[in-house]
Amino acid sequence: MKALAVIAVLSTGQVDVLLQQAAQRHGVPANIVEAVAYIESTKRCGILNGKHRGIMQVGKDAANEVGAAWPPKTCADEIEIGVMYLKLALQRGGNGCNGATLYNSGINARPHCSEYGRKVMRRANRKIE
After folding, report:
1. pLDDT at 1
2. Which residue, 18, 22, 55, 115, has fewest beta-carbon neighbours within 10 Å?
């Protein structure tokens, strides 16, 4: 993975605030949003991996699905697109492994639980001490 030069570097705290705000704005569980961001990029903005971009590793097709501009210009844009797409995945597959899997495999895939979905849910359900 390489980082895009156009995205400003944010602290972990700033990223966490953006993730929580987007989760709240779109009615998506914040623990699942954080888990997807961590699994996809270890919560790093501006990451480029093939045709996927940003902290939530979304592609142009996902942006089109949610009516968002492409490419994202800021970390907040990356999060916004990712959370809107995650919301669609969770609406279709539920707030568990099936929904998390659809985020990864595409919202039009058959809902099922994959290793990716289990990994997201393990992270989302971890106890913070």
Report:
1. 53
2. 115
In terms of residue numbers, what domain contains 114? Answer: 2-124
* % of the chain at pLDDT higher than 70: 91
On whether residue 129 sits in a domain, the answer given is no
CA gyration radius, the chain: 13
- pTM here is 0.91
Which burial class, exposed, middle or buried, applies to 106 when counting CB atoms under 10 A from its CB (0-12, 13-18, 19+)? middle
Residue 59, SS3?
Answer: coil
CATH number at residue 102: 1.10.530.10
Query: pLDDT (tens digit, 9 = 90+) per residue, 81-116?
Result: 999 999 999 999 999 999 999 999 999 999 999 999
Whether 45 is covered by a domain: the verdict is yes
Looking at 1-129, list the stretches that DSSP marks H as alpha helix, in order from N- to C-terminal side. 12-26, 30-41, 60-66, 75-93, 97-105, 115-124
